[in-house]
Each structure stands twice: as C-alpha cells, then as structure tokens.
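Encode chain A's predicted structure.
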Amino acid sequence: MIKFDRTHLDLGKHSIVPVAFEFKGVSRFDVEVNVTSKTSCGCTKATHPESVKPGEFLTITGSFVKKSKSVFKKTVTITCSGEGVSSEQTLTFSVEII
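Encoded structure for chain A:
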C-alpha cells in the first residue's frame, strides 16, 4: 500500500479556480507497482508517476475546476498493482467555491 501523509484535504474557500491539491506518500510495497487514478468527476484532474518502487516517495497533484458556488467533496481513487500485489485507496478533498 501507499502510506499517505493524509487521506483528506480541506482546501478551504476559493473564489478563483482552478484550485490545486497535493497528496504525498511513500510506497510500502515490496515490489514495484503500477499506479493509476480515477477521479469522482470530470471537474477533478489528477497526475502522478506511472509506477513507484519500494520505499519511493509518490506525489499526487491535481486541480479542481467548478465555477458554480457551493461546497464540494471529491475523491481520487488510487489503484496500485504489481507482481502478486494490488490495493485501492480513496483520497478525498473538500472545497468551497464562493
């Protein structure tokens, strides 16, 4: 699994979009794994390395773009798979567009 420093971010209030986010973690797998992500909607984009080696640090960066005013709660699901291992983790963030 990837040990993230946090699994939820409160991004606060913003009047200008896009709003950037970042999750940091380290691989606790014993083998190199491929990394994929899926966001909860098209308004959220996430980028990350294609793979991570044992003990290597990983940063998930991204942005959220929505012009309507409201409080939003979004997810980024990270899937890791390698030789004999797989895991899925859900990272979340909340943001208020004012």
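The mean pLDDT is 96.
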